[in-house]
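Methods — Computational structure assignment.
A single polypeptide chain was analysed. Its primary sequence is given first, followed by the predicted tertiary structure written as structure tokens.
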Amino acid sequence: MTTTTPTLPAGAQATGKTSTTAGRVRKRLNSRTATLVSVVIAVVWTIPTFGLFVSSFRPEDQIKTTGWWTFFTNPQFTLENYQEVLFGRSSSSGQLANYFVNSLAITVPSVLFPIAFASLAAYALAWINFRGRDWAYIAIFALQIVPLQMALVPLLRFFSTGVTLGGVTLMPAWDLVDEQKFVQVWFAHTCFALPFAVFLLHNFIAQLPKDLMEAARVDGATHPKIFRTIVLPLITPALAAFGIFQFLWVWNDLLVALIFAGGSSETAPLTVRLAEMAGTRGNEWQRLTAGAFVSIVVPLIVFLSLQRYFVRGLLAGSVKG
């Protein structure tokens, strides 16, 4: 009497081996040692920001003579740094209140426009059949490799001289002044963000269940209604994840805003003024620390408020079933 040992198919063996490896990795990442290392990294990463926060409330003489850690042995607290940086009237003060409003005026539309256009384009590329759809998606994906710096000069010429072909003016120069230059910054940031946004959102939308879309069409739903009532609620984590990335990028941007909006107080963002303060008033540490923390506050609030959507957006699609 002979006995045979059942053998698993090669695919099943590979799947079992992969799951075993993933289990070992997951177990190591959940160990006490990994948790301790993560806590240490988080603390070390946070210390400079905490020191900046403490220094922003210290008097000028204390900042220039002692380190921020001496605050705990000799605590001295003042709001004069923020008062002078935000609302000071002297030329040496930061006067960041106007620049803060400019940053908001630049950043909010520069986040909403790419999200709106990219979500519509991603839905069309994923669920609407039309000729050349795949080639359009490949072209949009390829645009991600174009360096931002290469597009600055052509885009600036587009704004300043318009578009002329064979002596015929297809689009005149924009000729925008003062606060109207915000439109140029919105347009530039939207153009630079769209390739990545379409690629990211397309991957999420394409993974939605096909049966759900077919059921909606059977019920008579049109593409606008499907997009508004079904797709948008399901891709909220992806929209939040991209929104955080885009907000941080635009808020911290110096190059694009300086080129297309200029450096005047009517249109320049916080980053332009902070660069001027660091270059011309580099010894005014109490103002620099307060100004730097003013620029940190809004991105920090945005990230913390959307954190749960951000984590869900990163994990979406990693597990199926």
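Note: The chain is about 70% helix and 0% strand.
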